[in-house]
């Protein structure tokens, strides 16, 4: 293995830790050579692969996205890049908002205003309320594009039957948690047991809406989410276009296996059958 490097040399060359290299190997991202004693060695192809991984990570892609992109499988690269740009823009906005808040509070302290922990927390809560208002405005921009005023009125009427104690903030947090869990698990076989578990959790979360929505309302909703990359505002449902596309595949696989879903007439390929 004269033309290869051992793991210590690769860590010096790339800046990666030995633990990271072993993790990439376990995820199937890189395949080092092995000596007779089982020690890892990296040839030119493996080093090129590692440099590719590092480049994609600098672009902000997750390991799951990198794995899908480098697995020689068909992938919607435009959709992936669009979703990643949306994610980075949202992340940049959160960082910018946090910086603006901290700069504002620091300026008040610099001018002698007494800011204690309680006041600081109050300012943060006020900022969160402003963010919630902005999020509502973003969702209105999206729904105005995909639903007529009459259809929105029907949604409002139907949703009037939802439990009055329904907590929207807690519900949004559940979608974010589930969306992040699915994203971290990708790539994944849509017909796997893990995917089936995610489908079950997905439809469990949908229950407040499946109990009141009509097939026509679901058709419109499906079309709206299918067009996520073209939304007029950066509304955040808790998952991105990649997760949405995967869940449609996983739901179709579950239905093909004979499992029922919670929406009568539901067709993951087109909304309502």
UniProtKB/TrEMBL annotation:
PROSITE patterns reported in the protein's UniProt record: HTH_MERR_2 (PS50937)
CDD domains on file: HTH_MerR-like
Domain HTH merR-type positions: 4-72
InterPro entries the record matches: DNA-bd_dom_put_sf (IPR009061), MerR-type_HTH_dom (IPR000551), MerR_fam (IPR047057), TipAS_dom (IPR012925)
Pfam entry (one): TipAS
Domain of life: Bacteria
Keywords attached to this entry: DNA-binding
PANTHER family documented for this protein: MERR FAMILY REGULATORY PROTEIN, REDOX-CYCLING DRUG-SENSING TRANSCRIPTIONAL ACTIVATOR SOXR
Name of protein: HTH merR-type domain-containing protein
